[in-house]
């Protein structure tokens, strides 16, 4: 009889959001041990019913993912508890409509760049060395279909997601020889409560479900995606 594989160790940022919850549910269903990161520990504890790490429960950590200083002790605690990390899913990010490009504020630019681009650097910086040491790992980011082209009053958001895609590609080139796959999913509009509230006249049946996005992330974290490096899987839905 074939021996069962040991449980994978999976880290998920933005875990308390709609997509983060779907991703956590997907990996938990596969028997993985999860380290869940969000900006509010109280929010995490209200969403996930296993605040204690005993008996295979989730590790819950609050951290500002845009801050290297905030991420350092959280990553150290996760690596100390798990010993290794097999999959890192960077869901955390943000969206906002902005001013016209010629009137774009520094505040909006910095906010989007920090949330969507720099956070990837701040988070991966603490887990990639461990993956390189073990000569394996999967890193999946959540970018956006919108990163491929410009649109009115979305300059900061689109630029930041485009920057994230380039960071994914650069990191992929740097670590693929060490057995690490770095890729992203690039959804159009995710069917989340926030998007339904923001666009009440739109038909969410045309959007991408969080379950579909989570399944695609699980694919990128699987052995079936071993030959994929620096790719962005576009999830169009019908939008």
From TrEMBL:
It comes from the Bacteria. Signal peptide: none annotated. InterPro entries: NAD(P)-bd_dom_sf (IPR036291), SDR_fam (IPR002347). It holds the Pfam family adh_short. Keywords: Oxidoreductase. GO terms for molecular function: oxidoreductase activity. GO terms for cellular component: membrane. Belongs to the short-chain dehydrogenases/reductases (SDR) family. This is Short-subunit dehydrogenase.
């Amino acid at each position: 009889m074939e021996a069962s594989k040991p449980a994978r160790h999976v880290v998920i940022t933005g875990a308390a959001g709609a997509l983060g919850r779907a991703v956590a549910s997907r990996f938990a269903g596969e028997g993985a041990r999860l380290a869940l990161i969000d900006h509010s520990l109280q929010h995490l504890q209200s969403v996930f019913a296993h605040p204690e790490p005993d008996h295979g429960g989730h590790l819950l950590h609050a951290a500002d993912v845009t801050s290297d200083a905030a991420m350092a002790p959280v990553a150290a605690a996760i690596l100390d508890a798990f010993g290794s990390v097999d999959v890192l899913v960077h869901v955390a990010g943000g969206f906002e409509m902005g001013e016209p490009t010629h009137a774009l504020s520094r505040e909006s630019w910095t906010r989007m760049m920090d949330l969507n681009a720099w956070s990837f650097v701040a988070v991966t910086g603490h887990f990639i060395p461990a993956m390189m040491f073990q000569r394996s790992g999967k890193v999946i980011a959540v970018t956006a279909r919108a990163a491929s082209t410009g649109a009115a009053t979305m300059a900061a958001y689109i630029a930041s997601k485009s920057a994230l895609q380039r960071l994914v590609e650069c990191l992929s080139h740097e670590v693929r020889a060490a057995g690490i796959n770095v890729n992203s999913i690039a959804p159009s509009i995710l069917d989340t409560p926030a998007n339904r509230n923001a666009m009440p006249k739109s038909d969410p049946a045309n959007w991408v479900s969080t379950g579909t996005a989570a399944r695609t992330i699980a694919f990128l974290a699987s052995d079936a995606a071993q030959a994929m490096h620096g790719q962005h899987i576009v999830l169009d839905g019908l939008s």
